[in-house]
Design goal:
By secondary structure, this protein is an alpha/beta fold. The protein is about 35% helix and about 15% strand. The protein has two domains: about 150 residues, Ribosomal protein L4/L1 (Ribosomal Protein L4, Chain: A); about 50 residues, no CATH class. It has a six-stranded mixed beta sheet with strand order 2-1-3-6-4-5. A hairpin with a 5-residue loop joins β1 and β2. α2 crosses α3 and α4 packs across α5. The two termini are about 15 Å apart.
């Protein structure tokens, strides 16, 4: 089993934690992680964009001038795409962009993402994140001591002080263990987990 050092908020090592290899030590599958990321980004798209084709815009019922003899190019309607106010060629229409993944694929993608952070030595475990108040400067110093200025911070349950403290740090995002996503894990340089969050993740994916 892989083991990682556990730090306190002062950045001092307090103990060693054994990680479950079934979650944090699987063979990394880049293809399935890519599929999960593409799926999440696609599922976030609303798909509500819409424009009118030449058959849907109003007007243009009569030919603007006669076919020959005017010196102009021949035109059949003032609502053709080349006219101002005309229809759009291949106009976008509302559609569903969602991508489906089965349960086993989602689990493998998550395990691969977590294992990649362990393999790259970019997983930081803290014993707890008990902040007395919501203060950005204090939280930024904690992350600096943990050598994780650009990080995804994961707690077991929502911690309002941690969330509010991190809101104004553009390189940091907070989430809870049951809302973890492959995209967020791979997006941020470091993954910071509390001990409780590690246990919660292992309980779900082991």
């Amino acid at each position: 089993m892989a083991s990682v050092k556990v730090y306190d908020i002062e950045g001092k090592e307090v103990e060693t934690l054994e990680l479950n290899d079934a979650v944090f030590g699987v063979e990394i599958n880049e293809h399935i992680m890519h599929k999960a990321v593409v799926g999440q980004l696609a599922n976030n798209r609303q798909g509500t964009q819409s424009a009118k084709t030449r058959s849907e815009v109003s007007g243009g019922g009569r030919k603007p001038w006669r076919q020959k003899g005017t010196g102009h190019a021949r035109q059949g309607s003032t609502r053709s795409p080349q006219w101002t106010g005309g229809g759009v060629v291949f106009a976008p229409k509302p559609r569903d962009y969602s991508v489906k993944m089965n349960k086993k694929e989602k689990q493998l993608a998550m395990k691969s993402a977590l294992s990649s952070k362990v393999a790259e030595n970019k997983l930081v475990v803290v014993d707890k994140l008990d902040l007395q108040e919501a203060k950005t400067s204090v939280f930024a110093k904690i992350l600096a001591k943990l050598s994780a200025p650009k990080a995804l911070v994961v707690t077991k349950d929502k911690n309002n002080n941690v969330v509010l403290s991190a809101n104004n740090i553009p390189t940091v995002k907070t989430t809870v263990a049951n809302s973890l996503s492959v995209y967020d894990i791979l997006k941020y340089e470091k993954l910071v987990l509390t001990k409780e969050a590690v246990a919660a993740i292992e309980e779900v994916y082991a």
